Amino acid sequence: MAGRSWRWTSGGAQARCGGEGEGGGRVEVRLWLMSNSFPLCSEHGICVCGHCIFCEVDNAVQQWVKALPADELFAAVSSRINVLLTRYKGKFRHYDVNNEMLHGSFYQDKLGKDARAAMFNTASELDPDALLYAPRRPL
């Protein structure tokens, strides 16, 4: 029945930037629920979007991430995007690479003006068939 009504879903909370925990400054991706939902979605012809690899809005960034010095933040960002896109290459049809870029600038402020482009370039290299986007909200 679900396959007849729904054509797309997102990873929701399981694939959001808030889905990781502190681990000595490293990002530890906990996406087992998302991994286990791919067979069900596929069986019903439902495509999956990757939601919110990163989120620029300050109140959406975990405190332990905010506390990282720039070099450790860069390593955490690199780890998250590499783990996520290597693990799910070809499974997510779309990725919201950096959510809320019109309303926040946490990563850009901490990592420099080229941080956003680097996120998109890395995502494109790791999963070249996925459509990458940055959603917009009405201002």
TrEMBL record:
Gene3D superfamilies: Glycosidases. One of its GO terms (molecular function) is endo-1,4-beta-xylanase activity. Transmembrane segments: none annotated. It comes from the Eukaryota. GO terms for biological process: polysaccharide catabolic process. Belongs to the glycosyl hydrolase 10 (cellulase F) family. This is GH10 domain-containing protein.
